[in-house]
Amino acid sequence: MKTRDRIIQASLQLFNENGERSTTTNHIAAHLGMSPGNLYYHFRNKEDIIRSIFTLYENHLESAFQPYTPQQLDVEVLISYFDAIFYTMWQFRFMYANLVDILGRDEALKQRYLKVQTRVQTHATELLTQLCRDGFLCVAPDKISRLADSIRMMVSFWISYQLTQSDGSGITKATLYEGVLRVLMIFNGYATSNSANTFARLEQHYSALALRPQ
Amino acid sequence: MKTRDRIIQASLQLFNENGERSTTTNHIAAHLGMSPGNLYYHFRNKEDIIRSIFTLYENHLESAFQPYTPQQLDVEVLISYFDAIFYTMWQFRFMYANLVDILGRDEALKQRYLKVQTRVQTHATELLTQLCRDGFLCVAPDKISRLADSIRMMVSFWISYQLTQSDGSGITKATLYEGVLRVLMIFNGYATSNSANTFARLEQHYSALALRPQ
Amino acid sequence: MKTRDRIIQASLQLFNENGERSTTTNHIAAHLGMSPGNLYYHFRNKEDIIRSIFTLYENHLESAFQPYTPQQLDVEVLISYFDAIFYTMWQFRFMYANLVDILGRDEALKQRYLKVQTRVQTHATELLTQLCRDGFLCVAPDKISRLADSIRMMVSFWISYQLTQSDGSGITKATLYEGVLRVLMIFNGYATSNSANTFARLEQHYSALALRPQ
Amino acid sequence: MKTRDRIIQASLQLFNENGERSTTTNHIAAHLGMSPGNLYYHFRNKEDIIRSIFTLYENHLESAFQPYTPQQLDVEVLISYFDAIFYTMWQFRFMYANLVDILGRDEALKQRYLKVQTRVQTHATELLTQLCRDGFLCVAPDKISRLADSIRMMVSFWISYQLTQSDGSGITKATLYEGVLRVLMIFNGYATSNSANTFARLEQHYSALALRPQ
DNA sequence: TATGAATGAGCATTCATTCAT
DNA sequence: AATGAATGAATGCTCATTCAT
């Protein structure tokens, strides 16, 4: 792996584990057994590292929430979407835990965040429309967009919510699968008789993951 | 006012205006025309100041969300609750903007937060039950608790959400009245024919406030 | 001596001995056996220290180059002026050695420099006029100002000139007395028969000092 | 052009434009689209680059200030000398702006500077003698050397002086033509009736250049 | 010749906190 | 109660230079 990518990966890991605020650039360099100078050879400053991680986030969102091709729809497709939700939360959990702080310090990043969230909203709306059309969900057309928005808000603040509500020390995969289940619960409210069975299986699937110890 | 209280008030003001992170203890002391040593005579450390502010928060919540006495119910009562929601968000907005950060640094404070939130949840549930009983709302008994929870979550993260979504520089009273309106909108979904008129007047009331310039 | 003044004096000393560029704030603090934090308690930053030294420079120039009272004029008065020239060069030699650099980094300081130099020019002109009137010098009235200017330029760049011309390691008092002698030489060109003797004695006085080993 | 020369030219340009201090070796390499490693293949270190630029300076001085052949003397010859003064100041202005700093860091370079300045002094003296002999100037023989010295000092510190005196942002060609005019003014003081006209034309020539916008 | 990743000592500055008075 | 000088560990970042390829 290239040094630049190693720095990004190590930073992401340390940010997720110890928080972005308390992870210093010297920390990251030391963790990689490299000099701080080399880190600054590859990145202009700490903000630049965060922005590069944000690019990963953008790319992931972009690819994960594309509408599916017509013939594809079955449990696997839905699982891929819910897995993507989980993966996003888990992979970038430091960001969700400090969104206000991180975006508050970097106006350019905030603009990028707004942009990508707008796209996510669009894609999510399309996805829900498709699921309605294919008889998996039953949502009034004028409420689809609001549903997508609710889901986005839930996903965006699930980690913050958990960090303020649970007395545990940190976020585990199980915590995030709980979040996935909450989203599923919202879907369940709009399930059709066709999809009830599928959703039951999905719930079983993620319940099992939510119970797994770290 | 006693020195101790002056410190609390000044800290609250500065935290709200400039953020807790960038408000130093020397800053607070200077703002009060007092020595940092004196500040540390009255408080063990910065955390101690935040804890004292948190006590104000607890007291406010405790007194504001008590069930009303039977004969009272009219528009004024509802306004008093919604005003209390607004007041809480406005008065302690620095906390809402940094909840994860603040609670993450102080486990004892987190425990107090959990406790007070549990009480708020209880009181809110009782309140909703009362409003149903008095024919103002129509919510299935087993859904009342979940409704209270949704409202709490909306209030808790409205400020964070606004700080990440809007590209404006900061939180204004109008922003928070928008939040109050969102909560009202949820209530509206459960309004009875008796209360429809009342809710319309409430909406008018807060819409006007949300439009007022800073 | 107050800590603030001790910092100024130590900084001045270290700047003069080792150059301003290579004298770090930690250096200064260590030299005084104090923490860097304390240094920054008394001064906002390094620039602030330099500005405070510059205030000393301003005050010195202001007091040293006042016109003399009529009855005063004798050798002692002239010696006091030439001594002031020497003292200024010696006391603030780091500044003269790095004028371009120091003023180039701090526009506000440059403005103060321009202002004080304008005042020095005025005072020097008045002084020369007085000396002419008292029969010590004979300069055409329209050339007095230009003479003052030449002297100022000579004093301002004597140290720089010496640092580029001599292969010795540094500036000594003797070097600066040489500079004083050069200025005296200019005066000599305008001496009257009344003052010739006085100037001869002055030259002897400073020649002796210029020959003294460090 | 050879890589080595390209490095020298780029360094000279960047030093003149942005100052030697704030022009890093990586800067120079990037400006040339080359790796820092390659730069260090051609030069041992930054000092080595400066020394190579200094060689250009030496060569220029050596060739520009040679006595003229007897039959040549007319306005053109004088213009060529004054143009050479201008060219030297303009081409190597970063050096004049930081002479103390640059020579203070490199004792060997200082020795070369002393040597070349001695030669310049000699040549300038010869030149003035020739001009006297040819009836263009009238200077007492024992004062010729001192006149040459004064001119050298004026040229050497004109840029430094301007950088400390003007509140403008930087050195322009006009600034340096002003310097040339100052030198001309000194010559004027020793002009003969034969040369008065010539000097007037020279003054006109350089005044026009000094007034030209950048 | 040339690349470009890597080094590492060093710097100005911050801030919660302490403590003698 | 109050002062205010003092602490010191920590932080993000720079840049001339090296060296394996």
TrEMBL record, chains A, B, C, D:
Keywords, in A-Z order: DNA-binding
PANTHER family referenced in this protein's UniProt entry, alphabetically: ACREF/ENVCD OPERON REPRESSOR-RELATED, TRANSCRIPTIONAL REGULATORY PROTEIN
Domain HTH tetR-type: 1-61
DNA-binding region location: 24-43
Keyword DNA-binding (UniProt): yes
UniProt name for this protein: TetR/AcrR family transcriptional regulator
Record-linked PROSITE patterns: HTH_TETR_2
